[in-house]
Amino acid sequence: MSNYEKLVHLLGRKIDEHMLNQLKREFDFLPKNEATKRHVEGGFKTYRLANKKAGISIELMGRKRYLAEYLNIANEENTPIFNEHDLMLSELTIHPPKTNKDLLFGLKTGFSFKQITEALGKTLKYYEFMEGFRISYLDGNYRVILALEENLILTWMRVRIISLEKHRAIERRKNLGPQNQFLIKDNAQKILDFTHKKPTIIWDSIWKEMLEEKTEEEKDASTLAYYQNEFEFIEKVDPVFDKFLLSVSKFLSQADAKGIYESTQRFIEELNALNEIYGSIQTTEREDICDFIDNVVRTTGFKVHPDADITYEWREW
Fold it and tell me: Does the global pTM surpass 0.70?
């Protein structure tokens, strides 16, 4: 078993103090910030160790984040899984400084796209990312990401365990057909009635009220530009909500769960694009949108886990 394979074997497993020190010695890891570890233990932050010379880095997370993201236990007590100082290995990145270096799963740096597909025995697609390309695919409990240069030559790879929400999303996608029987076609009009509950109505009212409360001295050019950005975002995003409701209502009347699922995906991807321009979706807006989508989808009769975040697999905010 190679050193890389040892690390993959540890993904998703508990890393106690003894194991952590052993990994540091074996891989000559240096922490990005030693002080960070105190905040990671038992908390929601992550802790990264790296050997830049060898091009290896790992990410570890604290108990609370692990339980919330991977076991869905936000407020555990006396859990037998982790003690206060244990961490969990969640991600491995391999970025060797030279070509023709062994990675994982039979891959090597310098492989062409054709060599990658042949080595993995998979039909893969690549997509543009910054100045190169990426390949992303699922392998059991892992998400594998391959980074390619502009000439489609493999440079590095990352393996990350899949979160609980991602597992739920995969199951939803696999079971869209059986969802048709649960859809309530008579609720098609109820979906359209959500137009009166759009978050944009609340946002518009709040921003206007906040602007009115400003004194003339406070309404300088910078402040007015900030508010104008928010009003433009609301103006652009409001019809996207309407389109989402019309699409869901249409597919609900046809008892088409796949159509509802894909309508939700398109809606969130459009929100992603608008937020990229305006940057207006912060914590409050995110919660408003997620609640709105959750209520709409559940009103169709679509079966979703009570704690699931339907938007998780697509949203970028």
Answer: no
